Amino acid sequence: MRFRGWMVTVVLGIGLLGQPGAGVVAGEQGAGESMAHSRIASLDITSRGPAFGGRSFGDVGEYEILLGTATAVADPAAALDAGIVDLDKAPRNADGLVEYTFEFDILKPVDITKGNGTLVYEVNNRGRNIVFGYFHEAGRGYESEHAGNGFLMNQGYTYVSSGWLHGAPGMGSPRPVLADLPPATDGGRTITGRSMEEWQDPASATFGRLTYPAATLDESQATLTHRQLQNDPRQPVPADQWHYVDDTTVAFTPPAGTDAGTIYEFVYEARDPIVMGLGFAAVRDFVSFVRHSPADGQGTPNPLFVDGEPVLEHVVAVGSSQSGRMIRDFIYQGFNADAAGRRVWDGATPYVGGARRTFVNARFAQTGRYTRQHEDHNYPMDEFPFTWGTTTDPLTGRTDGLLAACTASDTCPSVIQVDADSEYYGAHASLILTRTTGEPVALPSNVRYWMLALAHLQGDAGCRDPGNPISPWPYYRAAFDATVEWVRDGVAPPATAAPSVADGTAVTVAEQGRQYPTIPDRPYNAAISELGVRDFSVWPPRESVKKYPLFVPGLNGDGNVVAGVMTPEVAAPLATMGKAVRGPGFAEGDLCGVNGSTIPFPKTRAERLANGDSRLSLEERYPGGQAEYSARYSAAVDSLVAQRYLLPADGEKLKAAAASALSAAAATTGGQ
């Protein structure tokens, strides 16, 4: 098999030239050839013991946690790995293969035959198993206090997470799960190239830190600029106000008039890129190993086999934010086909991905970056294709889709992508459901898309208003559960639920502004992360004047969204819950994070009229008081449960928690 090359519109100056295209074409290389090379060479289980203090979970019984390190190899000459940028420039072992290691966590029933035969693979986020914590509404560790609601264990799942991001081993419980990936050299000579760093908030720990060492400390070979807002002109920081501390740190004095949201942009000559794309191969080969191989190359038994036979029949991947973007990119770049041409993940539920992918499989990659309206806007990861099906983009002249590779190799997973309205403002999410010309597009039959009428509980520091408090975790669980039933049992999943251009529930920013209610101290904010075609042959990159058409959710008279998975807090609202906006001293007015905002309703009609607020007050909209509110809230929950956007047990918990919500809202002091 080989990677299908794709046409890039521009030459990507930091080494994206040669990044794999979408496609793997089956049948051009024998499975035996690939199996002899890219593989898990050895498995070293360094720790094995009881999980959750020996707690037993229903008929499944006790769980155990296995921690360890895997050694893997990849062959730069094998077509399976041809799309990994700079793999041909990595050091080789005696067999001519590239060797690397990564850590792993395996959580399994002690008697795995009592499990349900399904593996949950979490694409961890910066080495952290955050979805594990979301599912269980507890900590991320494996001690007794972190079992939480026992969501995965009660159902008998086996859980695996393994390193795919380069980083030094860390400490903690659980420790970060990372990979030790090799550097790239040019025949043993140092590789250099232009790279860019962006910083905000001088008080942050990463301010002034470089991802890659500087190739030279000659300060005339670098530029440092600042600007308040993304589209403001770049202003140079005077040469006497910054200097290199060493080859990985820059120190400077923030110019007068800047604040904690000021964008600092540093372009310099970097050295020693890491072969980051090997992280994709690490996931592919490790999932394939635990699923199909009875032992490693040294004869160490696979701990997920019984008597030399596999017991796991299905794999569903989960990942949030960085990891949701990685899932989209992993599938797009053709890594869901293993060395034998088998499907790696049967299903996937990426959360908080929007229309983004990753800045991973590239020279001088910066894996933690993700483009937003204010920060990190100019990094490569928001490029065509955006949607799952194949479309043609007039701005680039390309025809492509996220599923093009796996369609060619017959290895596509079933996918339920789950976003929130914040991804429409900051992550170009409307492009998942439209062509790049703005017309609606149908998703492939193996994909569903849910836009939750909430945000994502990922911080609101510096934002003008309190964050949206609705937890997305019950909906993440429902999407995962529906995906498992889809791939394991053939049960059709809930339908796509999101604002649509076709029915008018997705609108332009101008149209949304006309729909927004009158809230005198919170007027409409039109900020959105615009997107054009970027030219990465120069740093900072240039972006086309012509932008892709973007849409945002339509609003009702309360300022809340009218389409998507309508959470009961929006169906029976106590506040306007919309986009998060930066507050004073933090680049005021631009978008702020992904946690949304909460603007409470007036409590009484008198308060509403005195403030000139067009939204009904709490006393006007719920004249029957808490009982009326609870009835409306419960009806919304029951509707979501009936449609399977919410699990029954979670529905009951939500109804119980809402039993005093109106009374609490009416008792709080003041408005916004």
Explain this structure.
With 672 residues, this protein is α+β, with helices and mostly antiparallel strands. Strands 3, 4, 5, 6, 7, 8, 9, 20, 21, 24 and 25 form an eleven-stranded mixed beta sheet that branches. Strands 12-17-13-14 form a four-stranded antiparallel beta sheet, with no helix packed on it. A hairpin with a 3-residue loop joins strand 4 (56-57) and strand 5 (61-74). It is globular and about 80 Å long. The protein starts with a strand and ends in a 5-residue tail after the last helix. 51% of the residues are buried.
Features:
11-stranded mixed beta sheet; 4-stranded antiparallel beta sheet; 19% helix
SSE arrangement:
Blueprint (H helix, E strand, L loop, with lengths): L1 E3 L18 E3 L5 H5 L3 E12 L5 E2 L3 E14 L23 E12 L8 E5 L7 H7 L14 H4 L3 E5 L16 E2 L4 E2 L2 E2 L1 E8 L23 E5 L7 E2 L5 E5 L2 E4 L10 E9 L6 H15 L12 E2 L2 E2 L3 E7 L1 H11 L14 E5 L39 E3 L4 E3 L3 H6 L4 E7 H6 L20 E6 L20 H17 L16 E2 L1 H7 L16 E4 L6 E6 L4 E2 L14 H4 L3 E4 L18 E4 L4 H7 L6 H4 L3 H19 L4 H10 L3 H7 L5
Short overview:
This protein is an alpha+beta fold and 672 residues long.
Question: What's the multimeric state?
Answer: single chain
Give the helix level as a range of percent: 10-25%
Span of the ends, CA to CA: 59 Å
Uncertain parts:
1-35
Q: Indicate the radius of gyration in whole angstroms.
A: 25 Å
> Which sheet architecture does the biggest sheet show?
11 strands, mixed
Overall mean pLDDT: 92
